[in-house]
Design a protein that fits this description.
It is a single chain. This protein is an alpha+beta fold. The protein has two domains: 294 residues, Aminopeptidase (3-Layer(aba) Sandwich), CATH 3.40.630; 114 residues, Alpha-Beta Plaits (2-Layer Sandwich). An eight-stranded mixed sheet has the order 1-2-6-5-7-18-8-17, covered by helices on one side. It has a four-stranded antiparallel sheet with strand order 12-14-10-15, with helices on one face. Helix 2 runs antiparallel to helix 4 and helix 4 packs across helix 10.
């Protein structure tokens, strides 16, 4: 029995336009493995962009590379490959339904063994699943293009292949500036989740990721002898107090439900045991669970650090680097994804997911249009090994590719009003 037949027989699932053929499944797996073997960092994804562009053009589509030089967009069902609204029945304009993928890799070595598609690039790996994201959106585009040729696509669709998700504040702001959201009414995406079985998606209305910013602090003072700290500025003590007391101060200045948290990852001060240094540095991250807390965070963090530094007579310089806001899923679009997965695979293939403390620049799109991100299960069913993202041994059960393609396809068709 083919996978196509198996899908149709799953409890609660039905056969529908957009089911993957065995040949397309095999092609997409090969495409994903090729990307996995040739990872590229943010804003350097030239080979990846060329591969996506060539396959879309082979399907008769007209992709357009973004102005930053990597990444691209491609419209389906509009009659053109450019930016703008699509014409619906009787010439009425219809907003585009956008499906987004991120295409960059991470600067870490691939440590997997026993697979033929390990990274061929030293210290580069698709350790966050962006190769899977890219392949699912490409596959959905190929399926939707065929449906459009058959006259079955009632909703115009835009594919967005975005570069530099892993580079703060992400590649999304540049993509938005280049016009990828012009004419878009809704946007969806997935993110690989190694804690969820392949075949299943995780959904959550409201915040599904955390905001993530970067914080760098420099402290300066005259320095001196450790025998006479009262005559100088004790920068080591000042730095230690900032590390321990800033999180406490913040917990009393913002609603606890915002989950505003500063976590330090680096502290450097001094060169020898009996000299109070003249310079100290600290760096860390600021994470927040909701938008109001994230928007208030820079002023609150600055004030807390300045108060402690002043108390210890240290001069402070603060570099607060905006990262990304939380991804806040629109309830209506989240329900659309639920309906699409239910139609395609049955309600048993959906689970509720918790809010992650990781950041994702898909959030920037949701500052402009309603949308939602789903967790795409990539764990092989029955595998009890604890796995995580951003590790050199990360891999995905490739059944997840078909799940993502069919989720995207069903969502586009349902949003277009096509009964399935």
């Amino acid at each position: 029995m083919s996978r196509e037949s198996e899908d149709a027989e799953r409890p609660g699932a039905v056969a529908m336009p957009g089911t993957l053929s065995d040949s397309l499944r095999a092609e997409l797996i090969a495409f994903r493995r090729d990307l996995h073997m040739h990872p590229e960092l943010g804003n350097q994804e030239f080979r990846t962009t060329a591969a996506i562009k060539a396959r879309l053009e082979q399907a008769g589509l007209k992709p357009r590379v973004l102005s930053v030089g990597t990444g691209l967009i491609c419209d389906i069902g509009t009659g053109h490959g450019g930016v703008g609204m699509a014409s619906g029945p009787a010439g009425a304009s219809r907003p585009l339904f956008a499906i987004r993928a991120d295409i960059d890799a991470l600067p870490i070595p691939d440590t997997k063994s026993g697979v033929p598609y390990r990274s061929t690039v030293p210290d580069r790996a698709h350790a966050c699943g962006h190769d899977v994201h890219t392949t699912t959106v490409l596959g959905a585009g190929l399926v939707l293009a065929e449906l459009d040729r058959q006259g079955l696509l009632t909703q115009p669709v835009r594919l967005i292949f975005q570069p530099a998700e892993e580079v703060l504040p992400g590649g999304a702001p540049d993509a938005i500036d280049s016009g990828v959201l012009e004419g878009v009414g809704k946007i969806i995406a997935v993110h690989c989740d190694p804690k969820v079985d392949a075949g299943v998606i995780g959904l959550r209305p409201g915040p599904i990721t955390s905001a993530c910013d970067r914080l760098e602090v420099a402290l300066d003072g005259p320095g001196g002898h450790t025998a006479r700290p009262h005559l100088t500025t004790d920068l080591v003590t000042a730095a230690a107090k900032i590390v321990t007391e800033v999180p406490v101060l913040l917990s009393r200045r913002v609603d606890a439900r915002s989950g505003l948290a500063v976590t330090w990852g680096r502290i450097e001060a001094g060169h020898t045991c009996n000299v109070i240094p003249q310079h100290a540095e600290l760096s860390g991250t600021v994470r927040c669970l909701d938008l109001p807390g994230w928007r208030a965070a820079p002023d609150l963090v600055h004030a807390a650090i300045d108060e402690i530094a002043t108390l210890h007579r240290a001069k402070s310089q603060i570099n607060y680097i905006r990262g990304v806001p939380p991804v806040v899923n629109d309830p209506v679009v989240t329900e659309l994804l639920r309906d699409a997965q239910t139609v395609r695979r049955g309600s048993y293939a959906i689970e509720d997911t918790e809010q992650s403390l990781g950041g994702e620049d898909f959030s920037w799109y949701l500052e402009h249009v309603p949308g939602a991100m789903a967790r795409l299960g990539v764990r092989t069913p029955g595998d009890t090994t604890r796995r995580d993202l951003h590790r050199g041994d990360f891999d995905a059960d490739e059944e997840a590719i078909a799940v993502g393609v069919e989720l995207f396809t069903a969502a586009a068709l349902l949003d277009g009003g096509r009964p399935l």
